[in-house]
Amino acid sequence: MTITSKGRLTLSVAAFATIAAGACAEPSEELIAAARAEGMLTTIALPHSWCGYGEVIQAFKDKYGIEVNELNPNAGSADELEAVKANRGNTGPQAPDVLDVGLSFGPTAKEQGLLQPYKVSTWDSIPADAKDDEGYWYGDYYGVLGFAVNNDIFPDAPQSFAELKDGQFANSVALQGDPRTGNSVMMAVYAAGIAEGGEPGADALNKGIAFFKELKESGNYVPVNGSAQNIAQGTTPIYFDWDYNLLAMRDKLDGNPPVSVVVPTDAVIAGVYVQAISAHAPHPNAAKLWMEYLYSDEGQLGWLKGYCHPIRFNDMAERGVIPQELLDNLPPAENYARAIFPTLPEQSEAKDAVAANWGSEMGVQ
Fold first, then answer.
1. Taking burial as the number of CB atoms within 10 A of a residue's CB, which of 84, 128, 186, 228 is the most buried?
2. Cα distance between residue 287 and residue 42, in whole Å
3. Taking residues 267-283, what's their average pLDDT?
4. Angle CA(57)–CA(344)–CA(164) in degrees, nearest 5?
5. Which residues form the signal peptide (predicted)?
6. Confidence band of 336 (pLDDT split at 50, 70, 90)
7. Can you tell me the mean pLDDT for 52-78?
8. Which CATH code, of 3.40.190.10, 3.90.76.10, 3.90.550.10, 1.20.1250.20, is assigned to 143-270+340-362?
9. How far apart are CA 27 and CA 25, in angstroms?
10. How sure is the predictor about 24, in pLDDT bands with cuts at 50, 70 and 90?
11. Alpha helices in the chain (DSSP H)
């Protein structure tokens, strides 16, 4: 996957929708009518601060007049698949229509018969290595793993995984949750393993577990979920997440306290998330319309506004439809130029390794 700066134009955010409308096919009137007849879309695991989803959801509602029922915004990828399984045959409000999961969860969900195929009208501009050939799942956006630092507590923010072992960071370093249930947390452990010299796959994940076990034994690791509230209060003054989530959190805190967002110098790990429609979606047409919106230029730019690199970034950059102001808000391009994109087999190995070893090594259930 490559990042390009070709074709940049200086445009206002308000202007991009006009350009986008001419660049990509609109969904059919038949699909729009069928989705409106269903009247609702049920999402899951979409926090409003994640990737700009708050504005993206509102824009979809405003454009099509369809109610969006939002389930468990803080769920992890594994929770999403369980929600589909638990609601087979349920047409009520607890059955999700669409999923947004880590890359490795896409093939798993397909194998388990949890997804239905659908190819959006912009299908050809989605990179081939980021989509299922049959349309069961496809990449939506990506970012890189980083950590946030409360600068009131640590004015000189550490810049690497290695530095986090220093005694000055006692009772300071946290993960966002349990790496066995959340893709972003698993990838933080994976990145630590790469920094420790691990080979891609299970070896990196196991070396990452060893890294966090060492932090726990030295007293640097805090067994509390990292969050905006906890970083502000100093409970978890350093915690890991995707760069786009950390940047949105930094903006929300607005300097109270000041926060640095660091992409570690010793491991730049990128993560692709994928979008899919549940095989048991109660509102299949609304789900398809949602997908069409997300993969339109307008939807992709909504994610970019939330600091995520949309999967069609290169296509839109080459056509010159990305506002310069959105590009200027992103982290430095070199952060992405150094990024490693773990493959599906490597992520699958990592999932197996974290499930097998995290609990026993870290002393947790």
1. 186
2. 8
3. 96
4. 80
5. 1-25
6. confident
7. 96
8. 3.40.190.10
9. 7
10. low
11. 16-23, 29-38, 53-64, 77-86, 105-111, 183-195, 202-218, 228-233, 243-253, 284-294, 297-305, 313-319, 324-328, 333-337, 344-362
Is the pLDDT confidence value at 333 over 90?
no
CB atoms under 10 Å from CB of 255, counted, come to 9
Mean pLDDT value across residues 311-320: 93
> Cα–Cα distance between 315 and 300 in angstroms, integer?
11
Quick check: 155 pLDDT over 60? yes
Q: What is the sign of the dihedral through the CA atoms of 195, 351, 229 and 166? A: negative
Distance CA 164, CA 333 (A): 24
Judge whether 13-140+276-333 and 143-270+340-362 match in fold.
Answer: yes
Using the predicted structure, report yes or no on whether residue 23 has a pLDDT greater than 60. no
Give the per-residue pLDDT at 365: 86
Does the domain formed by 13-140+276-333 have CATH 3.40.50.360?
Answer: no
Write down the domain spans for the chain. 13-140+276-333, 143-270+340-362
Which residue reads 């790469």 in tokens? Answer: 194
pTM, rounded to two decimals: 0.83
Instruction: Return left, alpha or beta for 305; rule: phi > 0 is left, psi -120 to 50 is alpha, else beta.
Output: alpha
Helix axes 297-305, 53-64, angle to 10 degrees: 150
pLDDT confidence of residue 245: 93
DSSP 224-286: S---HHHHHHTSSSEEEEEHHHHHHHHHHHTTSS-EEEE--TT--BEEEEEEEEETT-S-HHH
Q: Which residues pair with 323 in a beta bridge?
A: 9
Does 3 or 365 have the greater pLDDT score?
365
Amino acid identity, position 14: A
For residue 77, the SS3 value is helix
Which of 313, 290, 278 has the alpha carbon at shortest distance from 141? 313
Q: HSE-up of 172 (CA within 13 Å, CB side)? A: 20
Residues 261 and 183 sit within 8 Å (Cβ to Cβ): no
How confident is the model at residue 16, as a pLDDT?
A: 38
pLDDT at 4 over 70: no
Contact between 332 and 184 (Cβ < 8 Å): no
| Per-residue pLDDT, 119 | 98
